[in-house]
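Appendix B. Chain record.
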Amino acid sequence: MSKELRLSHYGILGLPSPNSTDHKVSLLDIKSAYRRALLHYHPDKSSSVFGAAAKAASSKYSVDQILLAYKTLIDPASRLQYDQSLKSAPVSTLDAEQPRPGLESVDLDDMEFDTRDNTWNRGCRCGNERGFVVTEDDLENHADVGEILTECRGCSLWLRVTYASADHDTLDGDD
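C-alpha coordinates predicted for this chain:
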Protein backbone atom coordinates (compact mmCIF):
# COMPACT_ATOMS: atom_id res chain seq x y z
CA MET A 1 0.00 0.00 0.00
CA SER A 2 1.48 3.35 -0.97
CA LYS A 3 1.88 6.21 1.45
CA GLU A 4 -0.81 8.20 -0.39
CA LEU A 5 -3.31 5.37 0.13
CA ARG A 6 -2.43 4.93 3.79
CA LEU A 7 -5.54 4.03 5.74
CA SER A 8 -6.37 6.33 8.64
CA HIS A 9 -9.56 7.27 10.43
CA TYR A 10 -9.30 10.73 8.91
CA GLY A 11 -8.89 9.30 5.42
CA ILE A 12 -11.85 6.94 5.82
CA LEU A 13 -14.10 9.87 6.70
CA GLY A 14 -12.59 12.11 4.04
CA LEU A 15 -11.18 14.57 6.58
CA PRO A 16 -7.77 16.23 6.50
CA SER A 17 -5.30 14.62 8.87
CA PRO A 18 -4.13 16.76 11.78
CA ASN A 19 -0.57 16.75 10.38
CA SER A 20 -1.56 18.04 6.93
CA THR A 21 -3.44 21.18 7.91
CA ASP A 22 -3.68 23.91 10.48
CA HIS A 23 -7.49 23.65 10.34
CA LYS A 24 -8.82 21.95 13.46
CA VAL A 25 -11.54 19.44 12.57
CA SER A 26 -14.66 20.17 14.61
CA LEU A 27 -17.14 17.65 16.00
CA LEU A 28 -19.67 18.93 13.46
CA ASP A 29 -17.16 18.24 10.66
CA ILE A 30 -16.72 14.69 11.97
CA LYS A 31 -20.47 14.05 12.20
CA SER A 32 -21.06 15.38 8.68
CA ALA A 33 -18.17 13.36 7.27
CA TYR A 34 -19.46 10.22 9.04
CA ARG A 35 -22.93 10.55 7.50
CA ARG A 36 -21.47 11.31 4.08
CA ALA A 37 -19.13 8.29 4.26
CA LEU A 38 -21.95 5.97 5.33
CA LEU A 39 -24.12 7.07 2.43
CA HIS A 40 -21.25 6.83 -0.01
CA TYR A 41 -19.78 3.47 1.04
CA HIS A 42 -22.75 1.52 2.45
CA PRO A 43 -23.55 -1.25 -0.07
CA ASP A 44 -27.33 -0.84 0.32
CA LYS A 45 -27.34 2.96 0.17
CA SER A 46 -24.72 3.91 -2.40
CA SER A 47 -26.53 2.66 -5.49
CA SER A 48 -29.75 4.48 -4.70
CA VAL A 49 -28.12 7.73 -3.61
CA PHE A 50 -25.13 8.08 -5.92
CA GLY A 51 -25.97 5.84 -8.89
CA ALA A 52 -24.63 2.53 -10.19
CA ALA A 53 -21.03 3.76 -10.51
CA ALA A 54 -20.90 4.37 -6.77
CA LYS A 55 -21.96 0.77 -6.10
CA ALA A 56 -18.59 -0.43 -7.42
CA ALA A 57 -16.72 2.13 -5.32
CA SER A 58 -18.77 1.31 -2.22
CA SER A 59 -16.40 -1.48 -1.26
CA LYS A 60 -13.46 0.85 -0.59
CA TYR A 61 -14.33 1.10 3.13
CA SER A 62 -16.65 -1.09 5.13
CA VAL A 63 -19.35 0.19 7.45
CA ASP A 64 -17.32 -1.27 10.34
CA GLN A 65 -14.27 0.78 9.35
CA ILE A 66 -16.38 3.94 9.04
CA LEU A 67 -18.00 3.36 12.43
CA LEU A 68 -14.65 2.74 14.11
CA ALA A 69 -13.24 5.93 12.58
CA TYR A 70 -16.24 7.92 13.76
CA LYS A 71 -16.20 6.52 17.31
CA THR A 72 -12.48 7.20 17.63
CA LEU A 73 -12.57 10.76 16.30
CA ILE A 74 -15.82 11.92 17.93
CA ASP A 75 -14.56 11.17 21.46
CA PRO A 76 -11.98 13.83 22.44
CA ALA A 77 -9.91 11.48 24.63
CA SER A 78 -9.81 8.72 21.99
CA ARG A 79 -9.04 11.25 19.29
CA LEU A 80 -6.13 12.72 21.23
CA GLN A 81 -4.69 9.26 21.83
CA TYR A 82 -5.20 8.34 18.16
CA ASP A 83 -3.54 11.57 16.95
CA GLN A 84 -0.56 10.89 19.21
CA SER A 85 -0.28 7.34 17.88
CA LEU A 86 -0.28 8.69 14.31
CA LYS A 87 2.56 11.06 15.12
CA SER A 88 4.66 8.43 16.87
CA ALA A 89 3.93 5.42 14.64
CA PRO A 90 6.62 4.44 12.15
CA VAL A 91 5.55 4.61 8.51
CA SER A 92 5.81 0.84 8.11
CA THR A 93 3.03 0.17 10.66
CA LEU A 94 0.78 2.74 8.98
CA ASP A 95 1.35 1.07 5.64
CA ALA A 96 0.60 -2.40 7.01
CA GLU A 97 -2.39 -4.32 5.73
CA GLN A 98 -5.49 -3.25 7.66
CA PRO A 99 -7.97 -5.72 9.14
CA ARG A 100 -10.76 -6.66 6.80
CA PRO A 101 -14.34 -7.23 7.95
CA GLY A 102 -15.45 -10.85 7.94
CA LEU A 103 -12.01 -12.10 6.91
CA GLU A 104 -11.93 -15.87 6.63
CA SER A 105 -8.92 -17.94 5.58
CA VAL A 106 -9.08 -20.95 3.27
CA ASP A 107 -6.67 -23.01 1.24
CA LEU A 108 -6.93 -22.82 -2.55
CA ASP A 109 -7.66 -26.56 -2.56
CA ASP A 110 -10.86 -25.86 -0.61
CA MET A 111 -12.23 -23.70 -3.42
CA GLU A 112 -14.12 -25.04 -6.44
CA PHE A 113 -12.33 -24.89 -9.78
CA ASP A 114 -14.48 -23.78 -12.72
CA THR A 115 -13.14 -25.28 -15.96
CA ARG A 116 -15.29 -22.94 -18.09
CA ASP A 117 -13.30 -19.83 -17.17
CA ASN A 118 -10.33 -21.40 -15.32
CA THR A 119 -11.08 -19.68 -12.01
CA TRP A 120 -11.41 -20.84 -8.43
CA ASN A 121 -14.52 -19.72 -6.61
CA ARG A 122 -16.29 -20.02 -3.30
CA GLY A 123 -19.75 -18.98 -2.17
CA CYS A 124 -20.20 -16.24 0.39
CA ARG A 125 -22.55 -16.10 3.33
CA CYS A 126 -24.28 -13.13 1.67
CA GLY A 127 -25.80 -15.67 -0.73
CA ASN A 128 -23.62 -15.03 -3.78
CA GLU A 129 -22.66 -18.53 -4.99
CA ARG A 130 -19.55 -17.19 -6.77
CA GLY A 131 -18.85 -14.38 -4.33
CA PHE A 132 -15.12 -15.01 -4.11
CA VAL A 133 -13.27 -15.57 -7.38
CA VAL A 134 -9.53 -16.10 -7.89
CA THR A 135 -7.90 -16.18 -11.33
CA GLU A 136 -4.60 -17.62 -12.54
CA ASP A 137 -3.31 -14.04 -12.95
CA ASP A 138 -4.17 -13.31 -9.30
CA LEU A 139 -2.17 -16.34 -8.20
CA GLU A 140 0.82 -15.49 -10.38
CA ASN A 141 0.85 -11.87 -9.18
CA HIS A 142 1.01 -13.00 -5.53
CA ALA A 143 3.12 -16.16 -5.94
CA ASP A 144 5.97 -14.74 -3.88
CA VAL A 145 3.62 -14.27 -0.90
CA GLY A 146 1.59 -17.47 -1.25
CA GLU A 147 -1.68 -15.83 -0.33
CA ILE A 148 -4.20 -13.45 -1.83
CA LEU A 149 -6.99 -11.36 -0.37
CA THR A 150 -10.16 -11.20 -2.41
CA GLU A 151 -13.36 -9.32 -1.73
CA CYS A 152 -16.80 -10.81 -2.23
CA ARG A 153 -18.48 -9.57 -5.38
CA GLY A 154 -21.78 -9.27 -3.53
CA CYS A 155 -20.87 -7.66 -0.19
CA SER A 156 -17.98 -6.25 1.82
CA LEU A 157 -16.61 -9.55 3.21
CA TRP A 158 -13.07 -10.70 2.44
CA LEU A 159 -11.42 -14.09 1.96
CA ARG A 160 -7.74 -14.89 2.45
CA VAL A 161 -6.72 -17.67 0.08
CA THR A 162 -3.44 -19.41 0.85
CA TYR A 163 -1.57 -21.60 -1.60
CA ALA A 164 1.83 -22.99 -2.38
CA SER A 165 3.15 -21.92 -5.74
CA ALA A 166 4.70 -24.65 -7.82
CA ASP A 167 8.28 -24.06 -8.92
CA HIS A 168 8.22 -24.78 -12.65
CA ASP A 169 11.89 -25.84 -12.69
CA THR A 170 11.24 -28.48 -10.05
CA LEU A 171 8.18 -29.75 -11.90
CA ASP A 172 10.17 -30.16 -15.11
CA GLY A 173 12.91 -32.06 -13.27
CA ASP A 174 15.48 -29.25 -13.73
CA ASP A 175 17.08 -28.71 -10.34
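Further analysis of this model is presented in Appendix C.
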